[in-house]
Amino acid sequence: MSINKSEILKNICYTELVYGRINKKLNIKFSKNQIEKFILKILRETEEKFFSKIGKNFYITNTENNIKITVNSNTFRIITVDRNQIYKK
Questions:
Q1: What is the pLDDT of residues 31-65, one digit of tens each?
Q2: Does 36 fall in a domain?
Q3: Secondary element (H or E) of residue 4
Q4: Count of domains observed in the chain
């Protein structure tokens, strides 16, 4: 199954709870509008090869910003945003 990045960008949406979750997980204090602009910027900048679908979710990994975005593939709702774990030897 191929992933349609433009469809994700066009349909992306948020729940009230996810704004607080994003601020908490990324340790930021953005407004709803700032969060939406930030997520949209990350999604646009991320090459489609870094979009994957596992089960019912899309996972978008942006290594430049050290961010992983989880999106429900049916509703296009943002589920969470995490900092990527960087493992050092």
A1: 999 999 999 999 999 999 999 999 999 999 999 99
A2: yes
A3: none
A4: 1
